[in-house]
Amino acid sequence: MVGLKEELLKSIWHAFTALDLDRSGKVLSHNLCTVLNVPHDPVALEEHFRDDDEGPVSNQGYMPYLNKFILEKVQGNFDKVEFNRMCWTLCAKKNLSKSPSLLSDEDAFKVWVIFNFLSEDKYPLIIVPEEIEYLLKKLTEAMGAGWQQEQFDHYKIALNTSREGLSAWELIDLIGSGQFSKGMDQQTVSMAINEVFNELILDVLKQGYMLKKGHKRKNWTERWFVLKPNIISYYISEDLRDKKGDIILDGNCCVEALPDKDGKKCLFLIKCLDKSFEISASDKKKKQEWIQAIQTTVSLLKAGSPPPHKEARQKRKELRQKLLAEQEELERQMKELQAANENKQKELETVRKQLEAAAARAAEEEKKRLQTQVELQDRFSLELEREKMVRQKMEEQVAQKSSELEQYLQRVRELEEMYKQLQEALEDEKQARQDEETVRKLQARLLEEESAKRAELEKWHLEQQQTIQMTEAEKQELENQRMIKEQALQVAMQQLEQLELERKEALEQYEEVKKKLEMAANNTKSWKDKVAHHEGLIRLIEPGSKNPHLITNWGPAAFTEAELEERQKSWKGKKAASE
Fold first, then answer.
1. Mean pLDDT on 491-509
2. Which ranges carry the PH domain (predicted)?
3. Phi, psi (5° rounding) for residue 70?
4. What is the pLDDT of residue 59?
5. Do the beta carbons of residue 307 and residue 229 sit within 8 Å?
6. What is the largest CA-CA distance in the chain?
């Protein structure tokens, strides 16, 4: 509640200083009660705003009233934007510059609220150069432009020579002048201010369009998602007018990537205690960004840490306080050295005066000695020797004091050089912190790319394992088929060998029949020759065969068609027996 009270006081301070409280103090208090949802107390209001010089209408009297009757009753159940807009309405008309500006009234209001967030916790409110640089860098980054560090350094030097920082209205004029956004139109500047406002004031960590799977109808619908430190809200569109639901985040929530399915890609799952949500991003980069952002948010909730921008603001304030304390300590040491130097100067002045007095006394004694030289010659000789010894000692003391003075002046020069080196070291430390921030962003980007590549490699590895398993199964199936074919081949080889044996037997039978046929043909020829010889031209008439003759490639067959059928039946029987 202390942090909330400080934030409220900054906006109220602007409205308080802009109003004539003798006439408008009641209006301010009434409006505060309305926007902060604090119960009205008309009796206390009239009592504390009675018309006298000691009431709360004075600067000394209003703050106790504000704390007791308004701020201590605030519960946090109010609209911060509406509260800031009410305070802005009361103070803007009086303080806002009328000069031409890139900022619209709405943009100026958002810059004013951002100023209250980044300003120092002391009054009158100002924003220091370090926070100005932080805000301008955020705006430049949101506009997609390059940051001009050298230009800002010149501006910072000019600012430090005149004052500690800028007021809210001077900051609005600076951004509206376009000094650090040259080449950017009004719409681009407005979009950048809105983006920074959403992040720093509304605690919007990430937002964008994604597809969400319904819990009842299981259909996919495009929604505008807004991630905040403890909740993800989703709307029909980015104008945030029609909210469709919330995803409440806590330390028990988790988010994990899902494989592509149902024609949807870039899927991830948000698991909560009571419900889970399936989301589809537009591409792999957006998917990884959302997963990383949600995981970071859940980690912050587990650790009880504030949002990153608030934690960064607190660290910057602590660093400034540390540097301020070191600078004050250095100034204190310089003052001590200066005081010691002044004391040494006084001591040297005292010694110089003593030497002058001693020299004057010596001159006087010399004069007296000259006047009484004749009368006191012997005595003068003794005094002269004594005076020489005294003079020698005094000269030694003067030389010693001069040496000490030279050493002291050398020490002062060394301290001045050390002070310059300390200032250079402070500048180097600031530059190192900026370089560290740049390297940290680069490392975060490299880690994100490595995570994406690691996920893709794991996916490839899984697909390779599946392919290997399928290949092993196919190899086993082919081996089984090969065994079956080898067995069939062996059976076929056996049948082929059996057929070869039968072919050889048939060939042998054929040779025997052929020999018989040749013998029969020779006998017939011999017989025909004998008949022709005895009977001359008489033709032998022979009875013809009743069955049709079979003709082969070698001539008439040696067996009839019936015998051939018998042989075929015999071969088929042998073949069936072998199978």
1. 83
2. 203-299
3. -125, -65
4. 47
5. yes
6. 219
Q: CA-to-CA distance for 291 and 286, rounded, in angstroms?
A: 9
Q: Cα separation of 294 and 230, whole Å?
A: 10
Spatial contact of 509 and 570, defined as CB atoms under 8 Å apart: no
Convert the pLDDT of each residue in 525-543 to its tens digit: 776 666 566 555 444 445 5
Residue 261 backbone dihedrals phi, psi, to 5 degrees? -160, 160
What does the DSSP 8-state code read for residue 264?
B
Which residue bears the tokens 């010149």?
Answer: 154
Distance CA 35, CA 43 (A): 20
- DSSP letter at 550 equals P
Instruction: Mean pLDDT check: name the lowest of 375-379, 457-461, 569-573.
Output: 375-379
Cα gap 400→347, rounded to integer Å: 14
Lookup: tokens for 194: 């809105």
Domains in the chain, please, with CATH?
A: 1-202 (no CATH), 206-306 (2.30.29.30)
What does the radius of gyration of the chain's CA atoms come to, in whole angstroms? 56
Q: Which of 131, 109, 121, 313 is nearest to 197 (CA)?
A: 109
Residue 121 makes CB contacts below 8 A (sequence gap 6+) with 6
* Strand pairing category for 220-228 and 231-235: antiparallel
Residue 130's contacts (CB-CB under 8 Å, 6 or more residues apart) are 316, 320
Long-range (24+ apart) CB contacts under 8 A made by 303-306 are 306/229
Task: State the Cα–Cα distance between residues 458 and 470, nearest whole angstrom.
Answer: 18
Q: 21 and 62 in contact (C-beta within 8 Å)?
A: yes
Q: What's the whole-number mean pLDDT along residues 569-576? A: 81
Among 81, 97, 93, 88, CA closest to 11:
88
Supply 125's token pair: 């409110």
- Cα 37 to Cα 467: distance, rounded to the nearest angstrom: 65
> pLDDT tens digits for 219-266?
899 999 999 988 999 999 988 888 899 999 988 899 999 998 888 889
Q: How far apart are CA 10 and CA 132, in angstroms?
A: 17
- Distance CA(270)–CA(291), nearest Å, equals 9
Amino acid letter, 368? K
Among residues 32, 23, 124, the alpha carbon closest in space to that of 86 is found at 32
pLDDT of res. 547: 55
Give the CA-trace dihedral at 195, 199, 201, 203, to 10 degrees: 140
Structure tokens at 184: 């950017």
Closest-CA residue to 174 (of 99, 238, 234, 227):
99
**Which residue type, as a one-letter code, is found at position 443?**
Q
pLDDT, position 209: 93
**Model confidence pLDDT, tens digit, residues 184-227:** 888 888 898 988 888 888 888 899 999 999 888 888 999 999 99
